[in-house]
Amino acid sequence: MNYNTIKDKLCCPFDKSELSLQVITLDEETDNVVEGIITCQECKRVYPIISGIPIMVPDEFREESMEKPMLEKWKSFIDGKEVKDFRLID
């Protein structure tokens, strides 16, 4: 997904709030985000971008066990914060 599309066109599917984007891997030729973390400014939900696809589905359809390894790998990109129930915990 293109960096500008993420920043300009997406909002949190739960509360429609603004999202922040932490790019981990960017395809410089296409300006597409390959890996990244999208975070809702309001509810603190975390949505990973894996292989260019943002995982932005309702919580009940997400599998924490599948997302956890990626979020552990990317812990330094979320300032060492913990993710619990798909939300950033200070």
Ends distance: 28 Å
The biggest sheet, with number of strands, parallel, antiparallel or mixed sense and barrel status, is: 4 strands, antiparallel
Number of domains: 1
What is the N-to-C order of secondary-structure elements (H for helix, E for strand)?
A: HEEEEHEE
Output the radius of gyration.
12 Å
Please tell me what the overall shape is: globular
Can you offer a commentary on this structure?
With 90 residues, the protein is of the alpha+beta class. It has one domain (3-89). 19% of the residues lie in helices and 34% in strands. It has helices at 3-9, 64-73, and strands spanning 19-27, 32-40, 46-50, 53-54, 82-84, 87-89. The strands form two sheets. Strands 1-2-3-4 form a four-stranded antiparallel beta sheet, sandwiched between helices. Strands 5-6 form a two-stranded antiparallel sheet. A hairpin with a 2-residue loop joins strand 5 and strand 6 (87-89). The longest helix is centred in the last third of the chain and has 10 residues, at 64-73.
Give a topology summary.
Blueprint: H1 3-9, E1 19-27, E2 32-40, E3 46-50, E4 53-54, H2 64-73, E5 82-84, E6 87-89
Antiparallel strand pairs: 1-2, 2-3, 3-4, 5-6
Protein traits:
19% helix; 4-stranded antiparallel β-sheet; 90 residues; alpha+beta
